[in-house]
Records
---
Amino acid sequence: MTKCLKSWLAPFAVEAPELMVGDVRTDSREVKPGDVFVATKGVAQDGIQFIDNAIVAGAVAVLLDADAEVTGKDVPLIAIEQLASQLPELLRAFYPKNGLELLGITGTNGKTTISQLVAQLGEAVAQKVAVVGTLGAGPLDELVEMNNTTPGLANNHRLLSQFAANGIDRVAMEVSSQGLHQGRVSGLGFSQAIFSNLTQDHLDYHGDMASYGEAKKALFEQNPQAKAIINIDDATGLAWYRQWQADNSGRMVIAVGGYDASFAEQPHVMFDEVCFASDGLQFKLKSSWGEAHMCCPLYGRFNLYNIVSALAVYLCEGIAIEQLVSAVANIVAVPGRMERFGNDKVVAIVDYAHTPDALSQALQAASAHVSGKLWCIFGCGGDRDSGKRPLMGEAAAQYADKVVITNDNPRNESPQHIAEQILAGIALTDKATIVLDRQQAIRTTLDNAATGDIVLIAGKGHETYQIFGDEVIAYDERRFVRQYFAHQSEELAS
């Protein structure tokens, strides 16, 4: 893509030469020959410091604040009043999005799952959906890895413009609190926004829960035209919902959560009559757009919130509920997020949980579906927070019948020492075993599991490596578990 610099800036009453330029960059490390570099002030650094780097990399022009004292460069220096505040509109003008529907998803947990469910449901209603988030950017079968959950502002505008040019109808974007605070989504123009929940996280950045919550609320305040899909079973979500209902702003707010008749007269998408089956979730969907019995191959009560949030995206736009029933039945778990493998005898769940709270949540979710024993295989990383190790052991012992402690990126620490620190948090040590070789731990546990048992394998999730010392070793846990059950099937067939 190339644009005329003069034509691009003319609507902003900015004089510029007749010069064809490539992309707009706010990070000098990303500049390519022919690009424009925008020297804005960031959270920690001033872009003026990197003008020379950008020019060396090939920048053919630099935008800077009108009060910046910079001269003597070999490329045009274009002064713009209040550059930072005008940048979102400048980027909107440079990167057209051609009616692309943009959904923003914020909250502590669930963003990745919700975005991927929205993409999967899109196929059922003949929409081409891309995601932007933790696992990458693009359609689900073409994901490209990124450095941040929420990319920088210029990168976001560029990415969405590329999606629109490639025929994408909708983008489901994970919007982190840091991304909101740092202005990475300013001016994108969200048509829908989801709030999943608020629990303690990122307080090293925000300072306290109130500031953390306000950072997430900015997604809705900056996009008053967006339809707001709000988890009203979360205290913060309920407070926002009541505020927006009371201020008569005209915003459409859709309540999602467990069924509550007091919301029946307002737009809502809720679950009721839940059954936790061995093969997933069954529930009755109740909404302002109709009711339906739903079956879904995901585990855990928390996934009910993810499902109804994703369904609300389409129902509030008039998509018939009947189109979505079969799509929900065929949902595939997000890689490494309560991802289910197994056979008629035993189920294995691979999950990314690697904190005490996440492990507790995953085990509680699995326990609702188990008819036999619940096993837990996990470890803790080396050269990281050692204080959480006994807490992880305590969480595992509280909810699992059997605990197997193993390796999870021991790095430069003694694997045995890490395992013993985990074991210190388990009061009844006879329910715990240490098997440091992770593949052996998984294979032995699955061999010993009885019919109706569930084995939660926590910590690695979608990761494809193990770290021993300074060596990164290829290790794909999902593939290993899949191969285990494939081998079991072959043995039964023979």
---
Amino acid sequence: EIERSPLYHFYIFDFAIQLQDWATRSGVTLPAGFTDRVRSMVRYSTDVLWPNGFTPLIGSSVRQRPAGDGPLYAALESTYPQFAYAVTGGRRGSPPTERAALFATSGQVILRSALAAGLPYVDNAQLVLNDGPASTPHSHLDALAIDYYSGGRVLLPDSGLGTYNPGTAFTFFHGTSAQNAVVVDGKDQGPGKVSTGLVQAGPGWEYASGLAQLNAGVSARRSVLMLGENLVLVADSLTSAASHDYQQLWHLFPGAHLTMTGTAAQVSNGQDQPVLQIVQNQLGSAPGVQTYYGAMNPMQGWYSEVYGLLQKNHVIGYSARGTQVTYLTLLAAGPDAANPAQLTGSAGAAGIHLHLCAADGSADITIAHQAAAGETVTVSNGPGGCSHGG
């Protein structure tokens, strides 16, 4: 948890289970607290797994499906039915019930949509927000970065591990520009303050926020709101005394087909079926848009789920400059990926107010005291579809 690496979590978790089994068979008493620690590891293991049974590529992680260790987990599955459900991809056990889980040591937040009737678990939606600072050399510089899964695949992944060998590739994969985050002045995040804001689940929605002060003079706040299985709202607020250059980055899964229409992105799978659209509304002015695919100067548009093996992938960058910049972004997946969607909003002393509409539903949202003391979020849901006036 300290490293925010699901791969290394399961690496140690498996050792702990083996040690526990050995102690039981051998009549050895383990140190006090060992069982409680394993129980905590079970909770994280249950929450962090994507609905397809794989671990996210967060931090120093490669492609991994712990379900391959089924015999090792047999006893745990009988004791923890939600863990059984997560590790088997919904074949056994009962669905996880935590829809907004905070792991305070790392600041990692995991949001999960409620499982809809008739929807296979593999198609459920899940999002991870990193609300903690880098704490070890294995940690990536990914504060406030998100990873998003919906409809059976990771739509917005972390770029992966790449390599441990010093050089251009290590610098990229370890750095902030390899994350679904906002980069300040083209630089990686440095040391500083990162804190978790509100983590809450409501009727049909899940919410989390965070504050990062990791670039000199800049306060970055990010809120993420999941609405059902197919809609995610991201609100980025960046403030500073002096003007800075910002770039909000979205990394697409390898093999994605990307079509840009102005600032709107349409993402399709290998069969040209729409799986995601990104609707951008930067308050004050239209952002600049750049796309990357296997670029080398600087390095951008690369993905690595196997150590040392790099693949090209599409990356979208929305750029802006100012002392106060607010990005409002709608991520629409599933049936909402192919249908019109709109996002409007405003920001002021009373907070951020937003209205979104898509085929799957509409909502009015107010975020007050974003990622600060007294933070609140209110959501008013409405019917689907966008009227002519938005």
